[in-house]
Amino acid sequence: MKTIDAKSWVQLTAGLFINALGWAAFLIPGQIVSGGVAGLGQIASYATAIPAGYFVLAVNAALLAIAVRVVGASFGVKTIYGIIVLSFFLVLLQPLFPRPVVEDRFLACLVGSILAGIGVGVSMNAGGSTGGTDIVAMIIGKFRNISPGRVYLAWDTAVISGSWLLFRSTEKLVYGFVAMAAISYVVDLLVSGANESHQFMIVSKESGIIARRVGTELDRGVTILHGKGWYSGEEKDVLFIVVRRDESSRVLRIIRETDRGAFLTMEKVMGVYGENFSVLRP
User: Fold this and answer.
1) From edge to edge, which strands make up the β-sheet containing 197-203?
2) What are phi and psi of 203, to 5 degrees?
3) What is the DSSP letter of 205?
4) d(Cα 234, Cα 146) in Å, to the nearest integer?
5) Which of 32-41, 104-113, 188-197 bottoms out in mean pLDDT, i.e. has the lowest?
6) Structurally, what CATH architecture does the domain formed by 197-269 represent?
7) Residue 134 — very low, low, confident or very high, per pLDDT cuts 50/70/90?
8) Is pLDDT at 2 greater than 50 in this prediction?
9) Cα torsion at 216, 218, 221, 226 (round to 10°)?
10) pLDDT band at 77, cuts 50/70/90?
11) Minimal CA–CA distance to 195: which of 277, 130, 253, 256?
12) Mind listing the pLDDT tens digit for each residue in 218-252?
């Protein structure tokens, strides 16, 4: 348990650094406001010369009580860590990049957004948060089956639209929305992709052995459907199995070792709810 917990903290720290790097090296110096608390920090930094990291720390502190109450104390501890460390990284890195790493604003927007999205996704998969909209996304996720990316999309629209009052630039406004869409896509890819499962339908003469091995070696349930071949008229058992993405190779190995002549289909499924999978919320 200690090793797993240590890995999650290392993963969280790495995610925070990647996120801060995307903002400090690309988005902030490129004047690309992408929403969230970091976006508000950008606007405040441009308007008052206050480093964005300090503003991010102040606003996120106000959201901490909500996170602890709704999501739980464990999440609250990692959120405190995330808020402090992300703010520290922003304060540390922002002075190092007075200009974007790449001169082209579109590339700065694209690379910065990808890095920020990766950082958020890695942090959320570690059970933590980078603060701000991440907290809102996870709180809503406790009650509704809404992807984090959609929460970002709605929340960040208001912040990006507000940046127009400061810059009065349609071009920067458009870049902000491009960055928002890119971050949302990357976050969804990492967070929802981590919950991706695979569904198998297997027809085999050794269905009993395959089912038994899947149950004992993977500790997964198997549903047996009774089928009949149209051409042969032969009664056959069809195995219905759903496993996590990282378990799929083990299922394929079991089938290969048991019956190389088995007929099977395998497909991705994103919404799997029930025992040993996600909890279905209203």
Assistant:
1) 223-228, 235-244, 197-203, 263-269
2) -115, 115
3) T
4) 45
5) 188-197
6) 2-Layer Sandwich (3.30)
7) low
8) no
9) -80
10) confident
11) 277
12) 889 999 999 998 888 889 999 999 998 778 889 99
CATH 3.30.70.120 spans which residues of the chain? 197-269
| Mean pLDDT of the 77-101 span | 89
Name every residue whose Cβ is closer than 8 Å to that of residue 211 and which is 6 or more positions away in sequence.
222, 224, 239
Q: Residue 1: is its pLDDT beyond 70? A: no
* Residues 104-136: b if buried by 16+ CB within 10 A, e if exposed: ebeebbbbbbbbbbbbbbbbbbbbbbbbbbbbb
Q: Is the predicted pLDDT of residue 180 greater than 70, yes or no?
A: yes
DSSP state letters, 51-108? -HHHHHHHHHHHHHHHHHHHT-HHHHHHHHHHHHHHHHHHHHHGGG-SS-SSS-HHHH
CB-CB contact of 118 with 191 (8 Å): no
Tokens at residue 279, please? 């909890």
What are the backbone dihedrals phi and psi of residue 220, each rounded to the nearest 5 degrees, phi first? -115, 150
**CA-to-CA distance for 23 and 39, rounded, in angstroms?**
9
Cβ-based neighbours of 3, under 8 Å, separated by 6 or more: none
H helix runs in the chain, sequence order: 2-22, 36-48, 52-70, 73-93, 105-125, 133-141, 148-167, 170-194, 207-217, 248-258
